[in-house]
Structures are given as structure tokens and as C-alpha cells.
Amino acid sequence: MTEAIAGAHMREELYSQPQTWARAAEMRAEQALLPARGARIAVVGCGTSWFMAQSFATLREQGGFGVTDAFTASETPLDRDYDAIVALTRSGTTTEVLELVDEVKGRIPVVAVVGDDTSPLVNTADTVIALPFADEKSVVQTRFATTALALFRASLGEDLTAAIADAQAVLDGTDDVTLGEAEQYSFLGMGWSIGLAHEAALKMRESSQSWTESYSSMEYRHGPIAIASPGRISWQFGAAPEGLQAQVEATGARFVQHAIDPMADLVRLHRVALDRAVARGLDPDQPRNLTRSVILDA
């Protein structure tokens, strides 16, 4: 019997992201199923999906497409006058998402974006956008989340050619091994990349049981920078506020920033997280205390 290789599924899945993004970018018919410009919407999900919802909400509002809120499914206010809810979930089995959809059934249309096109959500949502080619075997999500965000970005009229090229260049290259050797990580973002910073922190916690935090870049200086010190990393996704790098480096911490699309930089973090996990003798395909979907008992 061949012994399973730790993180084998995560490795295959994270390396496929340029291809799955390109496919999602071409799904024009499916993109047209998302709420139209001017619609007032909420985008909901749990964990990773919530963070992608945050990024999409910011991009949609900044693009002038209308009021867009992002909530974790369990905290979505049901008394607001939304034209639609976009429910993002890889498995389509998450209890809080299914309960939310049942609660608003017949009152607020739900567009479900799912990885598993045989899941219960497919039968209860009003509209379904399925991304089975981006579904995953690893418990730790990589490609489904970013592929959904690629679909969202393309639906707003973005050209993802540069982002896809950036991601491929990251995967074709070799990372600085010291990126995975820090004692502690603070991930930072501005605008739509704040959601990516939160997701990066989650990925490192899930896969390698690392000490991570995440913040808006501007808020980092309002207290959290106190954690910065030698041997620790502050990792900026996308543009940074003026002077932040110098302030971080003055603490002795390392400031990390790459001049690429922030979503492609998240791919770099995926690989760093995987390598850090394996180096610690951990398997991110089956991380401690986690399952593919959170299904709560009645």
C-alpha cells in the first residue's frame, strides 16, 4: 500500500488555480445570473467563504454596482430590504447557510455559488452557479475560494489576464524559504484585499497551527503593531499606506509585500502555508479539529 503524502490534495488544488480562474472568467452565462447592477444585495458565507464575500462586496460597491453587504451566515440581518442574497459555500451543506436560505425562502431570492453541485443547497436556492471543477478534497480550501472570487471579479468587468499570469509566475517560481519560518504573522490589506488578509491568516492557522492575525492596514497602527518584533512578519496584500513599511521595520519585524495582484499573492501564501505544515509534520488535507463542512446537530 502506498503511504499518503501529507498535503497532496492541497498541493494539487492550489497549483491548479490559474486554470480554474481562467475557466471561471469565461463563464459569462453564469456571471449573468448574479444580481444585476443597482441591486441591493448581501453576500454570505462561513469561514473562507465569508472572507471572499467581504472582498466581493467591496469590489462591487467600488465598481458602482450597488449596495453590497457581507456577512457570516449566522449573523446576517434578516430584516433588511435586500433584492437578493448571494450564498457562497464550497460544500453546500453548511448548517448556517442552509438555515439562512430556508429562513428567507419566498421573500428574498438566493443565488447559490457552490462547489458540490449535488449538495442540498442546489435544491433550495432560487438560482445556482456551480463550480464543480474547483471543488476540493483537502479540508483546507484554496482553489474554490479564489475561483469564486475570480468569477465575481469577472462579473464586474475585470480582466483577469494579469492576475492569472501573476499566479502562474508565483507557482512556476521558487519562494524564499524564510517566509515560512517566522514566529508570528500579521496579514494586512486595504479595500478588497482586507478579505484576502483575513483568509491568509485563516489558511496559516488551519494548515500549520500557526499564530496569525489579520487587520486593515490602516488599523494595524492603532494597536496591533505592538505585536511586531524581530522574527515576526507583517505581510501586506496589495498597496500599503504610506510609511507603514518603515514603521514595521523599525520594530525589527519583517515587512513583506509583492508587486502582484493580491489574489495571486494569496496563492503564494497557500504554498508557504502548505510547506510550513509539512515541515511541522502536519497534514493540511486533514487538519486538527476541522472537517470539510460544519454540520451542526439539530
Automatic annotation (TrEMBL):
Does the UniProt entry include the keyword tRNA processing?
no
Q: Which residues form the SIS domain?
A: 29-170
Keyword set for this entry?
Repeat
What Gene3D superfamilies would the database entry show?
A: Glucose-6-phosphate isomerase like protein, domain 1
Question: What CDD domains has UniProt attached to this entry?
Answer: SIS_GlmS_GlmD_1 (cd05008), SIS_GlmS_GlmD_2 (cd05009)
Q: Which SUPFAM superfamilies match?
A: SIS domain (SSF53697)
The keyword Amino-acid biosynthesis belongs to this UniProt entry's keyword annotation: no
| PANTHER family reported for this sequence | GLUCOSAMINE--FRUCTOSE-6-PHOSPHATE AMINOTRANSFERASE, ISOMERIZING, GLUCOSAMINE-6-PHOSPHATE DEAMINASE
Descriptive protein name:
SIS domain-containing protein
